[in-house]
Description:
Elements: E1 10-11, E2 29-34, H1 40-48, E3 52-58, H2 61-73, E4 79-83, H3 86-93, E5 99-105, H4 123-132, E6 133-143, H5 146-156, E7 162-165, H6 178-185, E8 191-197
Parallel strand pairs: 1-4, 2-3, 2-5, 3-4, 5-6
Antiparallel strand pairs: 6-8, 7-8
Amino acid sequence: MKTRNSLPFLDLLGHAEILDLTALTPLPRLELDLGCGKGGFSLELARRHPDTLVLAADIKAGRLKKVGNKAVRQKLDNVRTIRCLGWELIAFQIPDACLDRVHVLCPDPWPKDKHRRHRMLSSEFMQRLSTKLKPGGIFHYSTDDLPYLAWVKEAIAPLKCWIPCDDGIVDMADVKTEFELLWEREGKSVTHLTWRKA
């Protein structure tokens, strides 16, 4: 009988408690891939930075099971998968000042006017996100959608807690998510921006 090794995911949907990070890792650095999708970026991040715990977060349980299976097969013991809503995780499930870097890569742009209220990235979200990062922590955002790019730039511009920076992802600049590879095959370009917590 064939057995499959799997990394169970933490299911935080609907839970109000703060995540106990000391129970998860003794590692000195913590990065969050919020909306990790198929997990290619999260796994490469973990491979390149064995001193970092990588939290791969997504709403879809099936995706997280696959990411967990890949992490076990690749012997990456510095990956933890979390099922959550992004705004809940940032609002109250992650402790303050614990993250070194947050990646929000190719999030759904909700392009129709009537759906824009579903966009996760707003001034309020990004203000709250800054409280979860350590001083000097990095927020990394990417998109192929030019209106969403403009939306995020406009939302973050008045926030004094963020300073645009060019060196926030030099260690990962060559890594592309599955969505980014798909968009490139379709002839679309993906813009990456980073900000440092002031």
